[in-house]
Amino acid sequence: xxxxxxxxxxxxxxxxxxxxxxxxxxxxxxxxxxxxxxxxxxxxxxxxxxxxxxxxxxxxxxxxxxxxxxxxxxxxxxxxxxxxxxxxxxxxxxxxxxxxxxxxxxxxxxxxxxxxxxxxxxxxxxxxxxxxxxxxxxxxxxxxxxxxxxxxxxxxxxxxxxxxxxxxxxxxxxxxxxxxxxxxxxxxxxxxxxxxxxxxxxxxxxxxxxxxxxxxxxxxxxxxxxxxxxxxxxxxxxxxxxxxxxxxxxxxxxxxxxxxxxxxxxxxxxxxxxxxxxxxxxxxxxxxxxxxxxxxxxxxxxxxxxxxxxxxxxxxxxxxxxxxxxxxxxxxxxxxxxxxxxxxxxxxxxxxx
Length: 353
Hints:
With 353 residues, the protein is of the alpha/beta class. It has helices at 42-60, 77-87, 103-113, 133-141, 158-175, 191-200, 207-214, 237-251, 254-284, 290-323, 339-347; strands at 29-35, 64-70, 92-97, 118-121, 146-152, 187-190, 218-224, 331-335. It has two domains: 29-233 and 328-347, Spore Coat Polysaccharide Biosynthesis Protein SpsA, Chain A (Alpha-Beta Complex), CATH 3.90.550; 254-323. The chain has an eight-stranded mixed beta sheet with strand order 7-5-6-4-1-2-3-8, with helices on both faces. Helix 5 (158-175) packs parallel to helix 8 and helix 9 (254-284) runs antiparallel to helix 10.
């Protein structure tokens, strides 16, 4: 896709550059990094990510590519990504969104453009060290098709840790998806899992949970966790709540079933209470004091009804968003080396590997 003049869609790569080895030989690793207003932390990310991947290539023979997705940043993130592409065009690709579509849509775009047999997702804030990527890839080499991660000694606030544990328990009870740490995006996926996720074309989804439902040999490992290198978290309390709504409503109808069951129980209790009030009126006589009790019960039932309507609306709203078939994201430009230049760089001037 052609982009504006300041971001050419394709830039020729010098023939002297070395491409990562083909996936058919040693397994190409695609590292997908969503970026949103991370100008302060990107230099530190570049300084640690590429050396870590170069070490992995030397140690295990895995070629790699890094795909950055600029999710509508309003700071200098796009310019920094362009500069990094010009420095390492052999292993760097950049997707530039024309707006902010969210972290999971950025990862979906990376999934649809990546070429690797092993796909790793990484946040740009350096809270998950890039040096841990090699550990995930090593687990994939053992035959696992999905490698989750558990943050060791989390460097988050006490509120976020408690809320995360509570949501983990709630999610496991509702969806039967067992992920110890759902908030850690440092994960590895096989090509088969990525293709299955791409085929879903979901508007609202939670990628780690969706991958878990497709995986045949999932595994989790512990990874280090650090304080954010720069800037501040882009996930507000509201966004975290919305994300968990996507997780619950996208993978289970248990909330609807629970509400239906609660409606049955409340209806039965209401019938019993009406019978009790009728007998009491016959035995004791009219009582004005019971009016406020009825008000309290009525308000309680009204609250339950409104909650149920809102819950039903969440499911209907997601169906509505899905059936409109609007684009999930729009790409303004793609920075990558042309395929013919890339092939010449891989084979060399004499045509030898």
